């Protein structure tokens, strides 16, 4: 019965990672997969996570392996939505105002960021039936799979200007303003765009927000790098908070992941938040919540418990939260350092090309990834000749660089460009 199954492509980052693991060359470098690595090239459980895990275990709570509710852990969700929208951060604001704002957001725990994207896509596909979803070109490849599975037609908007190596604001704005229709969905990377590393400026976000409002486009924020990108969770959530606070009538989704910012990749911790308009009734909010629970129950009953317990404990405790901040700073600073090191090596080598896009230009190039600007043939040569693994688009994960290999990588880039 399965003999006629269609061929399906392997997911590229995981395929590249597999090829890297099989390579026996001592100089091999993995710039493929988007995970944090130390300057020794090793995985790094966050210090705060290790401390918290121990603490949770030592409490000996006999309930720690029990089922969660279908919507997940409520305390985790309150803290997770607070991190996204900033609820309760402003100590001077009226508690009743904060409560009113909280009521506008319906949250549900998910199987990490992927699960949140998937659940949101399913919710919209079934209930709103969007004419299409506008996906940035390029994007995290899984967006295509997720929206394919949801059965929503996909269209691309030109996200990246390869000539100037920047976010293509004009192309994005023109495409959406001329072609998007009411109730179409637009995928927006909230910060640290994967794969290019190029983000809109605040002024550009404001114009995109206005456009969504005028045209009735439904924004769908993918938030996979909050705090990991700039080291400042508030700064990385700026666009979402702007949409929420300034556009009271625009309803939108946020797919939140704790994979990168807590280093909890395999634990699958995340949440889907749906921001309702300020005029939405409590009845709408509870129906939405019930619909989300229904989808989750039929798929996997509830998201996993262990990782969410860690995130909840950290976010709910000032001392641990400060330690988390220290860990975020460690990770984001190392990545920034490596961006600068690669840039400096390429400049020293006189490698043909303009490499400014590798470093943090006007804070619009941030996060783990950069489009280095190599052709597919050059990428192939990087792997064949130099055992350096990256995506064929030329996306590199900066976190695979360290003091020992950055010169080697720069020399390889220089070689494939010149020959
Ligand atoms: N969105 C984007 C843009 C990502 O880069 C990632 C991680 N690669 C995710 C979502 C989801 O990751 P996870 O499912 O591990 O949370």
The overall average pLDDT, rounded, is 94
**Which geometry do the CA atoms define?**
globular
Major beta sheet, strand line-up: 2-10-9-8-7-3-4
Low-confidence stretches: none
Strand coverage percent: 5-15%
Helical segment count: 15
CATH topology of the largest domain: Aspartate Aminotransferase, domain 2
CATH architecture of the largest domain, please?
Answer: 3-Layer(aba) Sandwich
Give an overview of the whole structure.
It is a single chain. Helices cover 46% and strands 13% of the residues. The chain has 419 residues and is an alpha/beta fold. The chain has two domains: 12-44 and 321-418, Alpha-Beta Complex (Aspartate Aminotransferase, domain 1), CATH 3.90.1150; 74-316, Type I PLP-dependent aspartate aminotransferase-like (Major domain) (Aspartate Aminotransferase, domain 2), CATH 3.40.640. Helix 2 (47-59) packs across helix 12, helix 2 runs antiparallel to helix 13 (318-349) and helix 7 (169-179) packs parallel to helix 8 (202-215). The radius of gyration is 22 Å and the shape is globular. The model has no long low-confidence stretch (mean pLDDT 94). Bound molecules: 4'-deoxy-4'-aminopyridoxal-5'-phosphate (PMP). 4'-deoxy-4'-aminopyridoxal-5'-phosphate (PMP) binds next to helix 5.
Descriptive labels:
419 residues, globular, two-stranded parallel sheet, 2 domains, binds 4'-deoxy-4'-aminopyridoxal-5'-phosphate, Aspartate Aminotransferase, domain 2, Aspartate Aminotransferase, domain 1, alpha/beta
């Amino acid at each position: 019965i399965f003999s006629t199954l269609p061929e399906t492509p392997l997911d590229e980052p995981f395929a590249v990672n597999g090829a890297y693991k099989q390579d026996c060359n001592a100089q091999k470098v993995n710039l493929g997969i988007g995970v944090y690595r130390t300057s020794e090239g090793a995985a790094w459980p966050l210090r705060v996570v290790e401390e918290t895990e121990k603490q949770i275990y030592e409490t000996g709570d006999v309930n720690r392996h029990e089922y969660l509710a279908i919507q997940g852990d409520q305390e985790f969700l309150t803290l997770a939505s607070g991190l996204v929208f900033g609820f309760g951060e402003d100590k001077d604001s009226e508690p009743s105002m904060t409560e009113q704002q909280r009521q506008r957001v319906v949250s549900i725990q998910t199987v990490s960021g992927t699960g949140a994207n998937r659940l949101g896509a399913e919710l919209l596909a079934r209930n709103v039936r969007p004419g299409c979803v506008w996906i940035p070109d390029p994007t995290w490849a899984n967006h295509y799979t997720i929206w394919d599975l949801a059965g929503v037609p996909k269209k691309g908007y030109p996200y990246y200007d390869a000539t100037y190596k920047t976010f293509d604001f004009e192309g994005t704005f023109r495409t959406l303003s001329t072609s998007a229709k009411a109730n179409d969905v637009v995928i927006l990377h909230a910060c640290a765009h994967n794969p290019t590393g190029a983000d809109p400026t605040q002024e550009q976000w404001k114009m995109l927000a206005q456009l969504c409002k005028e045209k009735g486009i439904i924004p769908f924020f993918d938030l996979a790098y909050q705090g990991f990108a700039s080291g400042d969770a508030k700064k990385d959530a700026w666009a979402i908070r702007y949409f929420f606070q300034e556009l009271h009538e625009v309803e939108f989704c946020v797919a939140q992941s704790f994979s990168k910012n807590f280093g909890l990749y395999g634990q699958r911790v995340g949440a889907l938040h749906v921001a309702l308009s300020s005029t939405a009734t409590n009845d709408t909010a509870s129906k939405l919540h019930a619909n989300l629970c229904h989808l989750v129950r039929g798929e996997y009953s509830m998201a996993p418990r262990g990782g969410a317990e860690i995130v909840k404990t950290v976010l709910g405790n000032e001392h641990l939260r400060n330690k988390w901040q220290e860990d975020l700073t460690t990770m984001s600073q190392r990545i920034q350092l490596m961006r600068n090191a690669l840039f400096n090596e390429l400049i020293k080598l006189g490698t043909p090309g303009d490499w400014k896009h590798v470093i943090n230009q006007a804070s619009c190039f941030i996060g783990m990834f950069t489009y280095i600007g190599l052709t597919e043939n050059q990428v192939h040569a990087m792997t064949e000749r130099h055992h350096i693994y990256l995506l064929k688009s030329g996306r590199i994960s900066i976190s695979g660089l360290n003091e020992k290999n950055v010169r080697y990588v720069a020399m390889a880039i220089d070689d494939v460009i010149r020959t």
